Amino acid sequence: MRLWAPQAWVDGQWQAGVLLQVGHDGCWSEIGVGLPTPPEGATVLRGPALPGLVDAHSHAFQRAFAGLSERREAEADDFWSWRDRMYRVALRVTPDQLQAIAAQLYVELLRGGYTQVCEFHYLQHQPDGRPYPDPLALSWALADAAAEAGLGLTMLPVLYQRAGFAASGLRDDQRRFATTPAGVWAAREALQRSGRPLLNAGIAVHSLRAASADGIRELQRLAERMDDGPIHIHVAEQVQEVDDCLAATGARPIEWLCRELQPDARWQLVHATHALPGEIEAVGRSGAGMVICPSTEANLGDGLTNVPGWLAAGVPLALGSDSHVTRAWPEELRWLDYGQRLLRRARNVSAAPDRGEPSTAARLFEAVRAGGAHAAGFPRWGLVPGARADLLVLDAADPALCGLPPRHVLDALVFSSPCDAIADVYVAGRAVVRHRRHAEQDRIAARFDAAMQALWSDAA
């Protein structure tokens, strides 16, 4: 199949007259630029084309909680009180409900410009804490949901052992999360061997507070044979977590991780909100990446990380929608820079004119395009031969883009809102969204509604 775009994002910039050829393996076999007219037989795309992005951090079940924690009934409300309320859905959801919730989420992520999602998957067992007859029942529910939607999926089974640094085990309301290093590795191997299209797998550690040092090191040893799979970990998201880690280990979380675990390019530090300059430099030297989740970090009151510091250190940066209060990457990128603008009382903080990168949107987009590929375990990503043939087609007539000079289209997509400009979405060369509609969205939405009714029928 051959596609021709009047304008497409190739080699970090807009190129005119781009021919994209899809091979039999669902990857780009050839990319040509500078063709003013479409070749005979090529499908003409209706507007500018961009690569899809990787959503590098997702807890799919939390989509069922979006919008249900935005009231404060007590004197204080923070991450920890939100977490206690979130456990309500974690303790109730069934495999069928999880599939319904995730399928709805994955359609929304496609509509929001993501074509791959990394599932940081710690919801493992039956509501009473016993394993399902098939220990991967909830993992397969997520894989089935991704297949329904046509979205690529990187599964990350999570090591989760204890409730905190000083705890010997889990709280009762965490009983569905319990795993061992051997169990995590076995899950990863089964998922990786499944042969399902658009599915790959890595591993994750929930956090330093939720996994013992011995457990993490055991999982590290098992992962020595995993050359290409990613390793993700929540780290330094909350000030209390930093203080607790200092009290328990004598070091801050990122400091301890870099010193004791010596992460490499497979590692992804999720959030890393409270990072000192020296810690950022240490991560940069290690080759590890960082996954930032702007809308969730704002929603939970986590704080603002040092984005210019991460960029300057050359740390690969990826984007995650995490708790799914936002499900579109243009909004995540907008708030990524807006947070820095509010903090520093300056504009276009993430731009780098001294490096020939005056566009904030372009610099951030390129950073998360490349960083997202590492986070999901892909050696190539974007409009480049050998990468999976994922593509977003924009509607140039959308009010946010209408009449703009071509080189400002990405700027407007991110910073001119509201914007609903993503019209078509391709994954592995197949159109899964056309004219802003997914072929299965009505059926999937009906199942999601039924699952939500069952979960929350007794809510006030």
Overview features:
460 residues; alpha/beta; Urease, subunit C, domain 1; TIM Barrel; nine-stranded parallel β-sheet; five-stranded antiparallel β-sheet; 14 helices; 36% helix
Question: Helical segment tally?
Answer: 14
Low-confidence stretches: none
Structural class category: alpha/beta
CATH fold description of the largest domain: TIM Barrel
- What is the residue-averaged pLDDT? 96
Major β-sheet, in short? 9 strands, parallel
State the separation between the terminal residues, measured CA to CA. Answer: 52 Å
Extended strand count: 18
Radius of gyration: 21 Å
Query: What's the CATH C level of the largest domain?
Result: Alpha Beta
Based on the coordinates given, report the CATH architecture of the largest domain.
Alpha-Beta Barrel
Total count of domains: 2
Beta-sheet strand percentage? 15-25%
Classified in CATH, the superfamily of the largest domain is Metal-dependent hydrolases
Task: Work out the helicity level.
Answer: 25-40%
Shape: globular
Folded structure, characterized:
The chain is of the alpha/beta class and 460 residues long. It folds into two domains: 107 residues, Urease, subunit C, domain 1 (Roll), CATH 2.30.40; 324 residues, Metal-dependent hydrolases (TIM Barrel, Alpha-Beta Barrel), CATH 3.20.20. 36% of the residues lie in helices and 20% in strands. Strands 6, 7, 8, 9, 10, 11, 12, 13 and 14 form a nine-stranded parallel beta sheet that branches. β8, α4 and β9 form a beta-alpha-beta unit. α2 runs parallel beside α3, α2 crosses α14 and α4 runs parallel beside α5. The longest helix has 17 residues. The relative contact order is 0.15. The model has no long low-confidence stretch (mean pLDDT 96).
